[in-house]
Amino acid sequence: MRANPATRSLLLEALREAVAVARAEGAGWTMRSRKKQLETMDSLPAGMLSSMAQDLLRGRRLELPW
Questions:
Q1: Which of 13, 19, 24, 46 is most buried per CB count within 10 Å?
Q2: Start-end of H helices in the chain
Q3: Tens place of pLDDT for every residue, the chain, 66 residues?
């Protein structure tokens, strides 16, 4: 997702939207926060899975209903 230009663009747009929602709700998130978040995402191993993805693969109960 991070290496493909099309999906990276989608990731950046999702972060922009997250900043906009946070600001609309009064949170102190800024574009600088977005840059830091992207740097954190870029530092993660390519094969890393979220905890929910791991639970799904292991047949465990998920935090969210389908």
A1: 19
A2: 5-24, 31-43, 51-57
A3: 888 999 999 988 998 898 889 889 998 777 777 788 889 989 999 889 989 899 999 999 887 776
